[in-house]
Specification:
mainly alpha; 3 helices; globular
């Protein structure tokens, strides 16, 4: 089922991940997964997915894959 109605906006998920990366930096702890996840959220936001449900990241990846493999 591909229901991407808003339950938790992608931009809000990005904000939470950003907080996590900031806390990790402040504590001088590595957070490579959080850093990569934040990069993915930032790319999706720039592509116009910020207001969509976080599950719509799947659509973002599908669109990126289609562009890379026409």
């Amino acid at each position: 089922r591909r229901d991407f109605s808003i339950n938790f906006a992608q931009r809000l998920a990005a904000k939470d991940v950003r907080y996590l990366t900031e806390i990790a930096r402040f504590a001088k702890l590595p957070a490579p997964l959080a850093d990569r996840l934040l990069a993915i959220h930032d790319l999706a936001t720039m592509a116009g997915f910020g207001g969509r449900d976080v599950r719509a990241l799947l659509v973002y990846y599908e669109e990126r894959a289609a562009q890379m493999n026409p």
